[in-house]
Amino acid sequence: MVKRIEMEVEQGGTNEVRPDFFREPPVKYTGGDLPWQWEEDGMIATRTGAWAAPGCHDGCGVIVYTDKETGKFVKVEGDEESPYYQGRLCARCIALKEAVYHPDRVLYPMKRDPKDRGRADKWERVTWDEAYALIKSKFDAIKAESGAKSVVFHLGTGRGTAPYMTRLQYAFGSVQYAYMLSGNSCYVPRVAACNVLMGTYCVPDCSQNHFDRYEHEGWVPPKNIFVWGNNPLVSNADGNLGHWVVDCMKRGSKLVVVDPKLTWLAAKADLWLQIRCGTDSALALAMGKYIVENDLYDHEFVESWCYGFEEYYEATREWTLERAAEVTWIPEEKIARAARMMAEKPTSVQWGLALDMTMECLAGSAAVVDLWSITGQIDIPGGMVTVHQPFNIQTWNPPDPAECLTIEEQKTRIGGEDFPALKYSGVVLTQADMTVDQMLTNRPYKIRANWIQSTNPLSCTAQEPNTRMEQAYKNAEFNVMVDPFMTPTAQACCDVFLPVCMYPERNGIRSIYYHVQTTNKACQALGESKSDMEICWELGRQWNDTLWPGETLEEFFTFTMKETGMSFEEAREENWIYPEYHYEKFRTGEQRPDGNLGFNTPTGRIELYSTLFGQWGQKPVPHYAEPPYSPNQVPERFDRDEYLEKYPLIMTTGARQWASFHSEHRQIPHLRALHPNPEFEIAPETAERYGVKQGDWCWIENHLGRVQLKANVQPVLDPSTISLDHAWWFPERNPEDEGAGCYDTYVSNANVIIEAGCGESGFGNNCKSHMCRVYPCEPEEIIGDTDMDKIVERFAMNEELV
Ligand SMILES: Nc1nc2c(c(=O)[nH]1)N[C@H]1C(S)=C(S)[C@@H](COP(=O)(O)OP(=O)(O)OC[C@H]3O[C@@H](n4cnc5c(=O)[nH]c(N)nc54)[C@H](O)[C@@H]3O)O[C@H]1N2
Ligand SMILES: Nc1nc2c(c(=O)[nH]1)N[C@H]1C(S)=C(S)[C@@H](COP(=O)(O)OP(=O)(O)OC[C@H]3O[C@@H](n4cnc5c(=O)[nH]c(N)nc54)[C@H](O)[C@@H]3O)O[C@H]1N2
Ligand code: SF4
Ligand SMILES: [Mo]
């Protein structure tokens, strides 16, 4: 049945991770009947993109209303004309005013003697010029003595800052762009898997590439949508608005949800696969085997456009329905039904973080890429459409280091040589765990300073924050924080604080995959706060002004969006710009820089058998690895039976919440009221078994320590599994407690009990599958419920500013 494929397409793609070669089709669609700014009821209405700060992935189209007389922020509303968002808005945007006028916003640059780290009372106000001069002199001295590589630049999850901070670090000369999540396991592994196998990235086609959306001629809704390890209604992550899934369901799409938890979407799904945490790869392999053996795959697509089908099939051979059901705990007939639905056309997959958060996540994501490839879903209406940055605008990816640094400088990137897969994510990051190791051990050389912008590793990003991350930062002689709020990381570890402004107070460019939109300043920034763009531009020009063309920041924006043929101001007038979208680009040569047919991979095809993985000494075909901590195994250094007797429960963490973006928004009264305390979900029978009642404060414990969260007893999880909030800290608590104890940073932070470490590709971690036990806290240990009256009082808007 399975035959070896002969090569028909041109070979020799490059797997370029930066798809800068794409020439946009000449057709551009701009839109909106209303202009970018107008007057309404004594207010000025400004159209903008709601990216950050405060943080969100999605940058929805909104209208910010400001007082015509005072210029002050009044309210924000959804932009109904915006094709992407169509007027939808979630709680975090609705509560924006409380963030803008928050009493705890830092409004002036500050410095503190490193010997006073942890002391809230020791910050001293300085001018921007003083702050820049101090940073420049410290960084320059370190560069002269130890090389620019000894300064690491840290950024958190995707927000508008990345291309500016990386340009700043390249202007200084450092290649060390770090992200402190163990195994860099957010989004970049999925992107790397796609780039390695397909030479491009792809997303489900919910019509978002077309400015006329669901009306677009030629678009059809997916027959089936798989929501796999993702909760898009809450997270709106990675360029997908959760509403689109529902919009497609209304137009007939069926839904398959792969999730250990009965989410809102799972409850509405045609098929819910309640998977055991960390076993997604086994499910994908079994579906693949079923599809091949039942002759459900797309013969034309596989024969013409895929490489290594035979080897792929071989890799799935052991994954009988029976074996997969044993490993994943999903009944055989459901796996078979899912496989049949996957093979129907068009089917698309909205995947998520759970696929990144296993140790062998690259292999797991590859197994899913293989499913949509062998069933021929690629670049067809309603299927998996390939995307890139429109007009090559660098608003998400950083600039290519090759444009800015010498080859020698580029080679110093921590983990770069050890983990070649890293650079295939398109974001040229260091390997997180090696970076922390080096910060801790000074080997092979000391990391002497850190620039930390838009990330809060002690409360959120880093695993083992209390025993690794904090010490790692403290081991450096000079740390700079750039954030709108004082955070535990800044309070415990930093020496200079640069305050950033909120999104209604800044200009910028928002673009992800489908369109370009400017972020438009609607009101003056409070105090002396500045945007990330301004800060990076002002300081970066002092190091190397050739990297920052233009006399003003807006001229620099015009430079970065030059392929639109418009200036920043002209683009603002147009509201949003969509390039014309083409399907099936692999059949027309649009998928490769050399214009040949096929895909931009070494074989010119989708590599079910990955020649690159092979070159790097990794398995070229997808495979499954049991999580390091699971009911079936624990690392060898433990006695397995003893460990599992002590810590019998599976623990997943970090399922997104409506009221917060990671560690943010805990200080916003209306949002805190929606979710006032750190919680974990537990099935009723498990709760009963461990003497836990609804609302009990409990310890969740394993060999790394214990954290305290409140029980939410819900029949949404298998009795074997509990699900913990992540990123909890308590901004209302007094930072007078010195050091990392400030804001009770480690009391309820799930990462305290998640082991740091990555898989063989350099990607992957244990955040969504670990082991633990649960027991109620003794009364005297309980941190106590959040007193909302106190929160409302403590965080009332700053009346002097409103
Ligand atoms: N246990 C567990 N841990 C996890 C996860 C999990 O699922 N489970 N998820 C992980 C994932 S996927 C990620 S991406 C990380 C996220 O980790 P982080 O990126 O660190 O998350 P945040 O808390 O959103 O961001 C930190 C800071 O950015 C500031 N900020 C917001 N907007 C801006 C801005 O525009 N400019 C600047 N300069 N600052 C801004 C906020 O005030 C906040 O203090 O957490 C990871 N941690
Ligand atoms: N409101 C809000 N939105 C956010 C964020 C936020 O903090 N708050 N963070 C942003 C960031 S940085 C990211 S990366 C995205 C992440 O957004 P998503 O990809 O949606 O990630 P999660 O919500 O962490 O997890 C999604 C689902 O995976 C399930 N899950 C847990 N373990 C497993 C498993 O082993 N297998 C499978 N198949 N499913 C599992 C969870 O139950 C959950 O329903 O959200 C972004 N958007
Ligand atoms: S997804 Fe929600 S919070 Fe994020 S920008 Fe859009 S409306 Fe605002
Ligand atoms: Mo993330």
From TrEMBL:
<dbReference type="Pfam" id="PF04879">
    <property type="entry name" value="Molybdop_Fe4S4"/>
</dbReference>
<protein>
    <submittedName>
        <fullName>Dehydrogenase</fullName>
    </submittedName>
</protein>
<dbReference type="InterPro" id="IPR050612">
    <property type="entry name" value="Prok_Mopterin_Oxidored"/>
</dbReference>
<dbReference type="InterPro" id="IPR006963">
    <property type="entry name" value="Mopterin_OxRdtase_4Fe-4S_dom"/>
</dbReference>
<keyword id="KW-0479">Metal-binding</keyword>
<dbReference type="InterPro" id="IPR037949">
    <property type="entry name" value="MopB_CT_Acetylene-hydratase"/>
</dbReference>
<keyword id="KW-0408">Iron</keyword>
<feature type="domain" description="4Fe-4S Mo/W bis-MGD-type">
    <location>
        <begin position="46"/>
        <end position="104"/>
    </location>
</feature>
<dbReference type="InterPro" id="IPR006656">
    <property type="entry name" value="Mopterin_OxRdtase"/>
</dbReference>
<dbReference type="Pfam" id="PF00384">
    <property type="entry name" value="Molybdopterin"/>
</dbReference>
<dbReference type="InterPro" id="IPR009010">
    <property type="entry name" value="Asp_de-COase-like_dom_sf"/>
</dbReference>
<dbReference type="InterPro" id="IPR006657">
    <property type="entry name" value="MoPterin_dinucl-bd_dom"/>
</dbReference>
<keyword id="KW-0411">Iron-sulfur</keyword>
<comment type="similarity">
    <text>Belongs to the prokaryotic molybdopterin-containing oxidoreductase family.</text>
</comment>
<dbReference type="Pfam" id="PF01568">
    <property type="entry name" value="Molydop_binding"/>
</dbReference>
